[in-house]
Amino acid sequence: MATPKIYTMSFSRIYPMYVQKAQRKNRTQAEVDEIICWLTGYSAQGLQTQIDQEVDFETFLAQAPAFNPKASLITGTVCGVRVETIEAPIMQKIRYLDKLIDELAKGKTMAKILRE
User: Long-range contact list for 79-83, CB < 8 A, 24+ apart?
Assistant: First the structure.
């Protein structure tokens, strides 16, 4: 089976799209960064390093220092697919991140987004 195109896309190419989506709904880049760092365990500097090195999305997630154990609490649909039923681990992590950014853009509070 072919590797999904999203796996090989540079995270530095996708990141600005997450920020733009949030900003269109009057949310901030800092909130996007907080979500990404919460989910992946990257520090702010670690996140910036990954962006600067232009790693692909698969590597970005595979090298995540500490994927948040609360990620399993993320449920719902992204692109018509339930995130909790996705079997491919990397694809599920990508969709978790997509779902969190969607929640941010829909106006949810950070406490709810971060499953506190």
Answer: none
| Residue 98 φ then ψ, to 5° | -55, -45
Binned at pLDDT 50, 70 and 90, residue 79 comes out as confident
- Count Cβ atoms within 10 A of the Cβ of residue 100 and give its class: 0-12 exposed, 13-18 middle, 19 or more buried: buried
**All structural domains of the chain with their residue ranges:** 5-113
Q: Look up the pTM and report it.
A: 0.94
Q: For 44-71, how does the pLDDT look when each residue is reduced to its tens digit (9 = 90+)?
A: 999 999 999 999 999 999 999 999 999 9
Determine the Cα–Cα distance for residues 32 and 34; give it in Å rounded to an integer.
5
Tell the CATH topology of 5-113.
Helicase, Ruva Protein; domain 3 (1.10.8)
